[in-house]
Design a protein that fits this description.
With 171 residues, the chain is α/β, with parallel strands linked by helices. The chain is built from five helices and seven strands, in the order βαβαβββαβαβα. Strands 2-1-3-6-7 form a five-stranded parallel beta sheet. β4 and β5 form a beta hairpin. The model has no long low-confidence stretch (mean pLDDT 91).
Amino acid sequence: MKNIRLLLVEDDLSDQMIFKRFVKQEELPYDYTVVDSVANAILSLETNIFDIVLLDHNLRDGTGFDVLDILNDDIAVIFITGTGAEDIAVKAIKLGADDYLSKDIEANYLRLLPTIVESSIEAKNIKKELKGYQQELEHLVEERTKKLNTEIKEKIRAQKLLQAEKERIQV
């Protein structure tokens, strides 16, 4: 099984350390990069490929929404908010985040992380697969439509020739 390429966008040093310690302690299969700002997140996204992005809402040079705006649909996103900020989490999901986590003082929210990461990536992969099937189906429909149009034109031409031949015979 390949490691999950993860980007953590978190400006709080203690939260970064708690995350790193948790990943190490749980031996999670994450190749992670940690950045502390919107600008560094954008730079990292331009130069690296990630499977998932964990976005803290409050960052020193903006918000997680600023990063969410530039992400493509292929990357799973988990939005991280403070406790009691469910309205922000709902907004994030409406704008394209796949899930969210609410921080708590004891960092118990991290216990949910492996499950949420896995399910978010799996959901994103299923969406990609469905999109591929949809594109393939659209292509097949387009090809069949072209064939039918050609057949219709040939039938119309044959009917016109037949009609012309009938008229010639009658004359």
